[in-house]
Structures are given as C-alpha cells and as structure tokens.
Amino acid sequence: MPQIRKFPSLLDTDPVKVLELLVGLESVSVLGAIRRADDSIELHIQTNASVAGCRGCGTFAKLKGWRIVNFVDLPSFGSPVSLSWHKRRWRCAEATCPVGSWTEEDCRIAAPRCKMTDRAGRYVTRAVGQAGRSVNEVARELGCDWHTVNDAVVAYGAALIDHPDRFSEVTALGLDETAFVRQAPYFKTNYVTSIVDVGAGQLLDIVPGRGGQESKAWLAKQGQIWKAAITHGTLDLSSAYKSVFTSELPHVTLVADPFHVVKLATSKLDEVRRRVQTETMGHRGHKVDPLYRARRLLAMAEERLSSDGKTKLLSLIEAGDPKGEVATAWHAKEAVRELYGHQDQALALRWLDELSADLTDGIRPPEVRSLGRTLKRWRLEITAWHDCHYSNGPTEAMNNLIKRVKRVAFGFTSFTNYRVRALLYAGKPDWSLLPSI
Ligand SMILES: [Zn+2]
What we know:
Blueprint: H1 15-23, E1 28-35, E2 41-47, E3 61-76, E4 79-92, E5 101-103, H2 118-129, H3 135-142, H4 146-161, E6 172-179, E7 191-197, E8 202-208, H5 212-221, H6 224-228, E9 232-235, H7 239-248, E10 253-256, H8 258-281, H9 290-293, H10 295-299, H11 307-320, H12 325-339, H13 345-359, H14 366-377, H15 379-388, H16 393-408, H17 415-426
C-alpha cells in the first residue's frame, strides 16, 4: 500500500489536465507529443469544436476529413515548440449550397494565413519591435526561419503603428532624412524622410524620398485641426523640405536646425582645405602635409582648443595656406557657431546679415561665398531658432534610434520592414493594445 501524501487542494494532479494547463490554449485537446532529434517538441492538438454550422445556409456541416497544419509556437521548458493542429475539414450537407467545403479556423490559436500561433506572433512583435532584438536571434530562439518571424512582426506591428491614437496634437514638426539601404557599390542608396514630433521626441512616420510628393501626401492626409495646431517646422537647409512646409503647412514658422547650419559651415571649411591642399602641394592630403595635419584641429570648436592646440593650428595654417583662404573659412565656421551664442533674435538677425554680407564679399574664397549666400537665403529660418529654440536635435535622436534598428538588421532592403521596425521602436506605440489587436 503506497503512502498517501496530501497535496494542496488547488493542485491539478490529473496528467491530462496538467498537460492542458501547460499548453494553455482554450477549448483544445492535446493528442500527443514527440520530442524530435533536434530537441524541439512537436505538440499535436485538435479543437473541441466537434460540430460546425455552414456559414452560407446554417445547416450542420459534415466532417469531410482532417488536415494537419504546423505552427511555430512559444518555446516550452527551453525547447522550441511546433504546434501540429489537426484541423477538421467540413463540408456543407446541402447539395445546392455554394459554400461547399472549408477548413476550421480559430483566431485564438492562430490568425488565418499565419505560420505562427497567435501568442508567438505577439511575443515576437514585442521582442523585435520593443526590445529591439534582431529577427534572426528571435527566429533561432523559436526554431523557425527569418521570414516567419518577420511576417508576424509586420502583421501585428502594422496594427499597432497604424492605430489612429498613436499620436495626437503636435506643435513642432520636424522633417529629416535618413539613408535606409546599406551603402555598397551594388545597392542604390535610398533616402527616407522621418516625420517627427520635435517637442515630444516621437517618430510619427517614415515616408520614402527626401521631401517631395510622399511627404506632402502624408501631411495632406492629416486633418485640418491637427495641421492647424502646428506652430513650428524644423528642417535642414534643404529646399525640398521647405517646399513641403510651404505647400502643406504655410502658417508654420520654419526653423533651420542649428546642427545642420554648423555642419554646412564645417563642410565648406573642409572643401577649402582640400582645394588649397591640392593647389599648393599638387596632390591630395598626405600625413606630412600641414593642412592635412590640421584637419582635426580645424574641425574642433575654438573654445575646446588647448593653447598648445591653437599654436599648432596657427603654425600649420601659416605653413600650408599662403593666401589665407583656410583661415578665412575657419573664421567663418567659428562665426556661424557664435551666432548661437546670441540670446536676442533681432540682434542675431543683424549679426547674421553682417556676417553673410562679409562672407559674400568678392575677395572671399568661393566656398565661403557660397556659405554666405546660403546664410542670406535662410536668414529668417536660421534666426527663428533664437525665438523658439526648437531644433532637429530630437529628430537626430530619432535617427540614432533608427540607425540602431538598421544596425541590428544589417541594413534593410524593404521599406515596409524598415518602417514597421523603426516605428515600433521609436514611434511610441501603445504596447498595452497588443493583446487586443
Ligand atoms: Zn451550406
């Protein structure tokens, strides 16, 4: 006589019940399981729906046969699980009914045409979209291929990111470009535009192209009330984005992003340095050439140069810049940076006007004159910053997030994949909605 042990009263001790409890699917019977050679588990189930009505005429359907369909499920006790669902094939008993035959479906187990169970689909959407894990890594964990995971992320993710309440009123809207295809000789680099709530730091959407029709169409789709609430638009110094704003949001104050303004001045300095280098030495920069040696010091902010660094910079410029062109471009760059030290908008504008007049003087190097012309053309947008301090800074942060998503995926070739992944990660979807979609 075995010793009778006392179990806690709520404990299920019936083996079938324990198994069903572990499987955790409603209205499902477990038929059996196999542990495969690769250590994954093949779990066979069927639903308890032993009767069905025809959706055409409502009469009781006849069982026509069975069809086994395999789904990737959540791992169990550390092993990947494949769910083999023995689906009933039904046939309408009414000879004249056009419905004919069909296979049973149950969305609680798996959505139609999905290769993954519903719960696994939600799990991978969170793992890839929220935690930023790579599709490959998650596919390995579930013992399936890349496409199965990606398809589920795109299907479940699209419902989350296209939810009408994902974003609400925006006061400052930013447009910024990102390259989205890995740069390699045999790949064309495509650009996409990030549309960002600059105030809240939320990625609203991603559209193909750099400005142009796609960006305009996106804005045109938004409601009048939403558009009317926008007071500021931030952008780099590109006429494409300017035309998006002027055609779709003519009432907003445009703000040139300080980061891009300083970047332009720095790149003009770089152009002058490379041209003077070639003109004076007859070749591109070598590591012994004074201007090549000065390139990092030139790019540094003046206040960050040590006194040794400053002395070195001056002597390198003296040696490599006979006409003082690099020095002029360096002063122009520092003057542009100084512009952002001004607190007062009217003063900043006067200062910018004087600066651009000086830089466009015929005696200046051509690159510096070009910088001066751009500053003149964008004078109002540049100094609009002094009034509101909105910048693409948050957009840059968004782009860094997007770059992280790209790095994890080793470059995207599909725009849809890219959009879903970036918006799940940086678009602040309401993850609490995931169980209900
Ligand atoms: Zn029927």
